[in-house]
UniProtKB/TrEMBL annotation:
The keyword Chloroplast does not apply. This is WD40 repeat-like protein. Residues 183-203 have a biased composition (Basic and acidic residues). SMART domains: WD40 (SM00320). It holds the Pfam family WD40. Residues 161-171 have a biased composition (Basic residues).
Length: 632
């Protein structure tokens, strides 16, 4: 009897279901037919929310650009009275613009999946967030979910990262390396405000890289014969791979276009912030923000090993790493966060002191930890100096540390030394100067470029850059089509002179202050710069910097956190925050091509393979894209 009553009430409830409820029920059934579960529905909702924010942001940007165009049109109307002069000026401007944008064939090459001469935008199959099918694959969905959560980093990371540094008070307003007092607590210099930055820009128009006015240069004599001998005994080879070796990507143009290597399925479940090749070029390591480093076979693109610290109780994020020369170990670092403590200042879990972890590549176990940095580790180099092994690291805590390893090993720490600086708030990337036996290196520090003496562990010179916010990338490059020094330290019997000095080239990348009203539009166009670093010709001479070229385009937007560049000696590949890679001719500075295969988010790192015709790029979309010279 009770059973019949229950059945009747159930049937009655079914009859009372509204049409809307039936439609909702059908939608839910469809979702589950597409392999959705409760977590995936939440991720889908999160994606739609983020997509709406993206649409709103792009709308604001278009409105902003529309206002600029309207202002330009008004100016043109006011100047119509002088028609002859206007036509002449327009003709010259148009010619200049074409010369910059179209170096070879009146059209920049925007590479696509099929051909290099297509200027069409990528279709929906290439846009990971535009197709419903992308949400059916669980792996893709995990990647997209993590990506959308950090989508705002284009603007917010640029703004919030330096804020933490600016909040620290320096001990003395006039402490900019005046006395180089050795104290336990390093004085800090507050970050540049947008007002002071814009004022300084006017004085840098003619001379982009200038000596820092308030910085007192260390009066260190340079024993040039000793450095030449050091360079001869310990020649450096790690920076010399270039397009002339006949194996890596050489020319990039319509006759030698790049194409996507479709069989390369390299990905992780979160942002891939960095990548590095093994010394023999056979393996590629990727570093993600979920605390994993994956090692891939470069020939087959198969996953070889996944490195993860299973014993770590806190939250790991991996940014950078390096193989040891024997490739038996990898040193990896990034950010370590407190699992149970929140930081309102960072809007993230509280940052703990960030160790460097040395992994056994075969077993995947952590065999050693190097403790010394208080915040995120942003760059790692492994070098030999006078026959001894060292790691060199930079960090957002402002310190550059050299780690001396025991008994020519790469796993046992002997001692570590913090580079004597005194003013740097954030130390980004470093690059060792060629033909100095690893004695000197150049570093991106705050908004400046600094030169350090590795042996004495101290800064010796500092140069102001043209960037209004900070310079986060510096890289020594071998420019194949630009002049070489006549005399090279350690390679020639004769020493360089002031008329014929030793020099090298390097590239910098910078971030600009964001627009005060919108906080998304940079106050200045983004650029990279090519500089010549002129070595001292006598023991008391300083290093000098000479401006060579700049790389820019109206669509080149790179105003984000930790975006690195690469070069093969002929071109510079410069990633952006909106998923593209701009390829510039290193000699002319003109745009050669654009790669647009990452989904509108930051492309963090990029690298040419030293002896294969391959180019790798990694992004916040959790993917590594591999490009190769197209076969015709």
């Amino acid at each position: 009897m009770t059973s019949n009553n229950d059945t009747e009430s159930s049937n009655s409830a079914q009859e009372n279901i509204s049409n809307d409820d039936k439609i909702n029920q059908e939608d839910i059934e469809i979702l589950f037919m597409k392999n959705y579960n409760e977590d995936q529905i939440e991720k889908r909702l999160l994606f739609l929310e983020q997509l709406q924010k993206k649409i709103e942001k792009e709308t604001k940007e278009l409105q902003y650009k529309s206002k600029l165009l309207q202002a330009n049109n008004n100016i043109e109307k006011e100047n119509n009275n002088d028609m002859d002069i206007e036509i002449e000026n327009d003709s010259e401007a148009s010619s200049d613009q074409l010369e910059i944008l179209n170096p070879e064939d009146n059209k920049p090459i925007e590479f696509s999946l099929v051909t290099s001469d297509s200027f069409a935008e990528p279709n929906n199959d290439n846009l990971l967030l535009s197709s419903e099918a992308d949400f059916i694959d669980i792996k893709n969905e995990e990647s997209i979910s993590n990506t959308t959560k950090r989508k705002k980093s284009k603007a917010s990371t640029v703004k919030t990262k330096p804020t933490k540094k600016a909040s620290r008070k320096k001990k003395n307003n006039d402490d900019d390396m005046e006395d180089f007092a050795d104290t336990n607590e390093k004085p800090r210099r507050s970050k540049k405000s947008s007002e002071t930055s814009k004022t300084k820009d006017k004085s840098k128009i003619n001379n982009l890289f200038t000596p820092a006015d308030k910085f007192k240069r260390i009066k260190e004599s340079i024993d040039i014969p000793e450095i030449c001998n050091l360079s001869s005994l310990y020649p450096d080879e790690y920076w010399k791979n270039n397009a002339d070796n006949g194996e890596m990507i050489n020319f990039i143009n319509e006759e030698c276009p790049l194409e996507l290597v479709k069989e390369a399925n390299i990905q992780d479940y979160s942002q891939i912030v960095g990548l590095v090749l093994s010394p023999d070029g056979e393996m590629l390591a990727t570093f993600s923000t979920i605390g994993t480093a994956k090692i891939w076979d470069v020939e087959t693109f198969d996953l070889i090993q996944t490195l993860r610290d299973a014993d770590e109780e806190q939250i790991d994020e991996f940014f950078v790493g390096r193989f040891t020369p024997s490739m038996e170990h990898m040193i990896i670092a990034g950010k370590l966060k407190d699992r149970k403590k929140w930081s309102s200042e960072d809007d993230d879990n509280h940052i703990l002191p960030c160790p460097l972890k040395i992994f056994d590549v075969v077993s995947g176990k952590v065999v050693s930890r190097l403790e010394g940095h208080a915040e995120e580790v942003l760059c790692i180099k492994n070098i030999c100096y006078k026959g001894e092994n060292y790691y060199v690291t930079t960090s957002q805590d402002g310190y550059i540390i050299k780690w001396k390893m025991k008994n020519n090993s790469w796993t046992e720490l002997d001692s570590y030394t913090k580079m004597f600086d005194g003013i740097t708030c954030m130390a980004f990337t470093i690059s060792f100067l060629p033909n100095t036996g690893n004695r000197y290196f150049v570093a991106a520090t705050d908004g400046d470029i600094s030169i350090f003496d590795f042996e004495s562990a101290q800064i010796i010179q500092r140069f102001v850059t043209p960037y209004s916010h900070y310079c986060d990338c510096v890289k020594i490059v071998d420019c194949l089509e630009l002049p070489k020094p006549e005399f090279i330290w350690g390679q020639n019997d004769e020493l360089p002179t002031k008329d014929s000095p030793m020099f090298c080239y390097f590239i910098t990348r910078g971030v600009e202050v964001l627009d005060a009203d919108d906080d998304t539009v940079p106050s200045k166009p983004n650029k990279c710069h090519l500089e010549k670093l002129i070595y001292p010709a006598s023991e008391h001479d300083p290093f000098k910097i000479e401006d060579i070229n700049s790389f820019q385009d109206e669509n080149y937007h790179s105003n984000s956190w930790l975006i690195k560049v690469t070069s093969n000696g002929r071109y510079i590949v410069a990633p952006t925050y909106d998923g593209k890679l701009f390829i510039f001719n290193l000699k002319t500075g003109k745009l050669t091509g654009i790669l647009h295969y990452h989904d509108g988010v930051e492309v963090r790192d990029v690298a040419f393979h030293p002896y294969k015709p391959l180019l790798f790029s990694c992004s916040d979309d959790g993917n590594v894209k591999v490009f190769s010279t197209a076969k015709k």
